[in-house]
């Protein structure tokens, strides 16, 4: 199981895990629950450059269509093809097999993110 306290979070309900200059990005269980059953995911292409706070993908569910925002700027070095092929992974394992993209980032320019306690407070404890 993923140590949720080791992750960083955004107010847009994304989580980020850092490994040197690679940031793995996904959406939280709170976001996945609010979306409902995910049926389609569109991710940026490997090699694409994404800008922080800009739309870089789309998540469709039985309830709605949501935009995926890049939590920081960087180059897409990997996308999770397993979640594109089986979008239900986003609902069943959002912090594990349901990750979305990996970005190469400049670690010196990463913005301040929320820690787990601040994120839980943001969602009124509905983690």
TrEMBL record:
Keywords: Lipoyl. Binds 1 lipoyl cofactor covalently. The keyword Ligase does not apply. It comes from the Bacteria. The modification N6-lipoyllysine is found at residue 63. The keyword tRNA processing does not apply. It holds the Pfam family GCV_H. Its cofactor is (R)-lipoate. InterPro entries: 2-oxoA_DH_lipoyl-BS, Biotin_lipoyl, GCV_H, GCV_H/Fam206, GCV_H_sub, Single_hybrid_motif. SUPFAM superfamilies: Single hybrid motif. The glycine cleavage system catalyzes the degradation of glycine. The H protein shuttles the methylamine group of glycine from the P protein to the T protein. The glycine cleavage system is composed of four proteins: P, T, L and H. HAMAP family: GcvH. Belongs to the GcvH family. This is Glycine cleavage system H protein. It comes from Microbacterium elymi.
């Amino acid at each position: 199981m993923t140590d949720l306290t080791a992750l960083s979070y955004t107010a847009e309900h994304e989580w980020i895990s850092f490994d040197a200059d690679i940031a793995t990005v996904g959406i939280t269980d709170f976001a996945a629950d609010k979306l409902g059953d995910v049926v389609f995911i569109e991710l940026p292409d490997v090699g694409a450059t994404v800008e922080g706070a800009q739309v870089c993908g789309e998540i469709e569910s039985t309830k709605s269509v949501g935009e995926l925002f890049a939590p920081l700027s960087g180059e897409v070095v990997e996308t999770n093809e397993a979640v594109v092929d089986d979008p239900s992974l986003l609902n069943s394992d959002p912090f594990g097999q349901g990750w979305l993209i990996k970005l190469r980032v400049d670690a010196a320019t990463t913005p301040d993110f929320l820690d787990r306690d601040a994120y839980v407070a943001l969602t009124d404890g509905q983690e």
